[in-house]
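ok posting inputs for the glycinamide ribonucleotide job
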Amino acid sequence: MVHWWSMLIKRTDPLRVAVLASGRGSNLQAVIDAIEAGTVQAKIVAVISNKKNSPALERACRHGLAGFFVDPKLHAGKPDSRESYDRELLSVLREHDVELVLLAGYMKIVTTVLVDAFVNRMMNIHPSLLPSFPGLDVQRKAIDWGCKLAGCTVHFVTEGVDEGPIILQAAVPILDDDSADSLAARILVQEHKIYPRAVQLFAEGRLRVEGRRVFIEQGKPAGEAVISPS
Ligand code: GAR
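and the output
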């Protein structure tokens, strides 16, 4: 089956985006900056965090965006605590007519409550070249494995963690003297490029999902191979 997940006719109103973030929020900032610079035609209508004092919420505040702390403690102890939490998130997303959800350093596994409500309308950014190294501490794992290339992936969110159809990837070399931190910093520079780019492709209606594959209408080929060491 072929799905078009954003409008084929040119839209006049900006895409309504929500960002879910737990921590530092640098990817949120990259999307905010791209919107403010006019390279992404979208409007962030809600920034939501599971951490009360997250820098992501401070960034939202600084840019005059609506920020929401949704407290996991209010759902703890319930037999379906994770789903219950996501139902509260979903009500915030619906109240704001959200069309696209971005997970940006959102360190909570989303349940089917959200996944089913935003099929191919929820993206995640992950600091590895998926399907290698899903999960945590992935820069360290790529170095320890002896990889010569690492990178980042923007993908649609499905039920499996870091598993959904891949939209964009960027690769960087792993250097002999890399620490997990130095590699993470090199990858992060690319994250800040490809996440806003993926949002803009969605806003332009250029992402077509067929099974596991995401095709980009009028996309350009990547060009030369990336070889490391060169
Ligand atoms: C980013 O590196 C992002 O790729 C990663 O968390 C960091 C958040 O940074 N996400 C994951 O590992 C998800 N599996 P940020 O808060 O500065 O955007």
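notes: The first strand starts at residue 2 and ends at 4. The domain at 124-216 is CATH 3.40.50.170 (Rossmann fold).
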